[in-house]
Amino acid sequence: MDAPDTTEAPTQKSRLPRLRMSGRGMWITFLLVPPLAVMALFVIYPIVSALAYAFYDWQGLRRGEFVGFANFSKVLFDEPFATTTWNAFKNNVFVFFALMIIQNGLGFILAYALWRDLPGARFHRIAVFLPVVLSTVIIGYVWKLFFHPIFGAVNQLLRSVGLDVFAGPWLGDPDTALNALIFVNAWAWVGFPTLVFLAGLQRIPSEILDAARMETDSELLLIRKIIWPLIAPSATVCFILLFIGSFNWFELPYIMVGLDGSPFGTTDVLGLYFYRTAFGNQSAGIQDFGMGSALAVLMFLFIAVVATVWTIYLRRREIEV
Amino acid sequence: MAQLSLRGVRKNFKNVEVLQGIDLDIRDRELIVFVGPSGCGKSTLLRLIAGLDPMTAGEFVLNGKSMQGVAPSKRDIAMVFQSYALYPHMNVYDNMAFGARLMGLSKAEVQARIDEAAGMLQLEPLLDRKPRELSGGQRQRVAIGRALARKPSVFLLDEPLSNLDAALRSDVRLEIAKLHRKIGATMIYVTHDQVEAMTLADRIVVMRGGLIEQVGTPRELYETPANAFVGTFIGSPRMSLLETTRDGPHFGIEGSGSIALPGAPETGQKVTLGLRPDAMHLGLADAPDGFDAEFEYAEYLGNEAYLYARLGDGTRVSLKGDTASCAHQPGDTVRICPDPAQLHYFDTETGRSFRSA
Fold first, then answer.
1. Residue A77: what are its φ and ψ, rounded to 5°?
2. Which of A223, B187, B203, B278 would you call most buried, defined as having the most Cβ atoms within 10 angstroms of its Cβ?
3. Contact B122, B184 (CB under 8 A)
C-alpha cells in the first residue's frame, strides 16, 4: 500500500516518505521476527516434526525407515490398537456431549440467574468462578479423595443421610467412573461458560429487552427469540472451546484414574491413549513414537477441521448488536 | 378508546424519590407531551405507564381497569424507544411482525397489518433489511411501524427524535403529527425539547423535580403560565424574569429605576415580572415607565433582531427589536419599556403566578 500523502508530492520529495516507510518497515520487521522465530521453533517445528515422526518406524528413540501411512493404518484399523482408539474416541464424544449439556447448559442458566441480579448474585458471581482458577492437579487430587469408596466425603455424606444404596466406588465402577470425571470437570469449569454468557447478556442493550417485554410476558419466549440470538457470540466461544477441551482432555483423567483409563478403559480418552502409546507405561506394553505421533496428528486434524467448520457455521448466525 | 388516569403516582429508586405524587387524566385520542428538564421524571412516568417499572405508590387506571400487576404486553400499550430498540437479528418485517404474531393473529392478519403500517411509513422497500442496514431515520420509522402493527390503544414515545439530526427531526415530527391525526390513537410523547412539545401537543404536561408544574394546551402554557418555571421553560428565547420591589403601583429594580403599572393585580411586596422578548421594546432614553439597562449585544436575524441587555441588578433581559437597534454599542445605556398588557406577575418567593392564583 502506498503512503497516501505522497501521491501529489513532487518526485524529488517523494523519496523521503518512502525512506520513512522503509524505516517503518524495519521497525515492524524488528518487532515481528523474534516472536515469529519463537513460534516457529516451539510451535510449528514440533507440529511438523510430529507429523514427520508419524511416517517413520521407530525402535525406542531411534528412527527407522519411512513407512508411509502404516502407523495411521495400525492405530485406526489393526487390532488390538483399533479397538482402543475407537473406544477412546467414543469416550471423548460422550464427554463432549455430556459437558455441552451439563457445563455449558448450567453455565447459561447460572449466567442468566446472575444477570437477573437475584439475591446473592455478587457472592455467587465469585463463588461460581473460583474453581476455574484452581489448578487441575489440585482439583483432581481433592475429588479423588472425595470419591474414595471408604473415606471419601461423597460416600460419607450419602451414608449420613441414609442413602447407603447409592454409596459406591465411584471411580472404580465402570458404570460411574466416566460420569464422575465429567461431573468434576463440570464442577471445576462451569464458571467459565457462566462468565462468557454473563458478559454476552450484559452487552444486550436494556431498551431491546424493554421493547421485547412490551410484546411478550413469556420469559422462555424472550430467551429463545431475543436473548439467545443476541448472545450467539458467547455461545460460539463456549461451544468451540468446550469442543477443543473435550477432545484434548488429559489432565483430569490422568490424575484421577491414571494413564490406563481404568476401570477397563471406561475412562480412556484419546489424550491418555496417545500418551501411553508414545511414551509407554507398564501396562501398555508398547512404546512407539510413530503410532503415538499418528494418533496426535489424527487428533489435531479432527479437532482443527471440526472446530473450523463449526466456527464458520456459528459465526454466520451471529449478528452485531 | 383509551382513557388514562394516574392518581397519586410515586416512584422511588432506592431512597431517591423520582416521582412525588402525579395526578393526571389523559383523554381519548389525545396527543399529550411530557416535557421538562433532564431528571424531572418524565421518562420514569412513561415507564410506569408502560409497566416496565413498578410504581412505588399510586394507581394507574386504563379504560376503567386498574393496571396494577398487569404485564406490559397485556396493557394494549406500545412504546417507541429513544434508541429505537429494534431487534438486531430480525429483518424489518420480522421486527414489526414479532409483537403482532404474539397477539395470536393469523398469518394473513399479521401480513395485512404490516402492509398497512409499512404503507403509512413508506417502509415497503426496506422490509427485508436488517436494522444495521438502515439509516437513523429509517430505523425510527421501523420502530414506529412496530408499534403501529400492534394497533394498541395507547402509544408511548420516549424522546423519539433525539437521535436524529436537526433536518430529519422536523420531518419526522411532522410525520408523527400526521400519523396521530390519521390513526387517532392516544399518544404520550416525552421530550425535553419545548419546540417539539409546542408543535405536537394537544396538551402539554410540564414537569420538574418529580412533580407536574402545569398541564394545558400549548397556548395556555404560553399565555398563562402557572409559575415562573413554566414561563421560562416554554417559549424561545426564554422569558426574562425581573425581580422587583413593589411600592403601590410602582415596581422598582435596584439601579434601574422603577415603572408604574396601574393595572397590576394584588401582589405582595416582592414581585417577579415575567417578560417575553416581544413584551418589551427599547424606548427613548427619557421614555417614561422604562428601566435603565446596559446594552450587551444584538443577534441580527434579517427581518428582526434579538437584543440582550443587563439591568442594574445584574439580570439579563432578552427582547425582540427592529434591526435598527443593532446599531447600539455594547455598554450603551438603553431604556427598556415593558408592555403592561403582556406582563406576567410571579411571586418572587414561590414563583407562582398572581394572575392564575
1. -125, -20
2. B187
3. no
Cα–Cα separations (whole angstroms), residue B95 to A36, A136, A319, B61, B162: 48, 46, 15, 29, 21
CB of B50 within 8 Å of a chain A CB? The answer is yes
User: CATH classification of B238-347 is 2.40.50.140, yes or no?
Assistant: yes
Q: Which residues pair with B271 in a beta bridge?
A: B244, B347
What is the rounded CA–CA span in Å between residue B357 and residue B355? 6
Q: Which residues pair with B243 in a beta bridge?
A: B272
What pTM value is reported for the model? 0.81
Which chain B residues are within 8 Å of A215, Cβ to Cβ?
Answer: 73, 98-99, 102, 150
Task: Find, in chain A, the residue whose alpha carbon is nearest to that of B52.
Answer: A210
Distance CA B77, CA A227 (A): 22
Contact B52 A205 (CB under 8 A): no
- For an interface test with B, give the residue of A204, A213, A215 to mutate (most B CBs within 10 A): A215
ipTM for the assembly:
0.84
Bridge partners (DSSP) of residue B19 are B11
Residues, chain A = 321
Q: Please name the residues in contact with A279: beta carbons below 8 A apart, sequence gap of 6 or more.
A: A287, A292
Sequence ranges of the domains in chain B: 4-231, 238-347
- Averaged confidence pLDDT in chain B: 89
| Topology adopted by domain B4-231 | Rossmann fold (3.40.50)
Greatest CA separation for chain A: 93
C-alpha cell at A38: 519463537
Which residues of B are less than 8 Å from A212 in CB distance? Answer: 87, 98
The burial of A308, by beta-carbon neighbours within 10 Å (0-12 exposed, 13-18 middle, 19 or more buried), is given as exposed
Q: What pLDDT digit, counting tens, does each position of A177-220 carry?
A: 999 999 999 999 999 999 999 999 999 999 999 999 999 989 99
Contact criterion met (CB < 8 Å) for B79 and A205? no
| Nearest CB neighbour to A320, from listed B79, B82, B132 | B132
Tell me, yes or no, if B132 comes closer than 8 A to chain A by beta carbon: yes
Q: Is B102 on the interface with A (CB under 8 A)?
A: yes
Q: A231 vs chain B: nearest CA distance in angstroms?
A: 11
* Cα–Cα distance measured from residue B299 to residue B305, given in angstroms and rounded to the nearest whole number: 5
Residue A18 has pLDDT above 60, yes or no: no
pLDDT band at A284 (very low <50, low <70, confident <90, very high): low
User: Which pLDDT score is estimated for A142?
Assistant: 94
Q: What cell does A143 get?
A: 475429588
Cell numbers placing B288: 417614561
The burial of A150, by beta-carbon neighbours within 10 Å (0-12 exposed, 13-18 middle, 19 or more buried), is given as exposed
Q: pLDDT digit string (tens) for B60-102?
A: 999 888 998 899 999 999 999 988 999 999 999 999 999 888 8
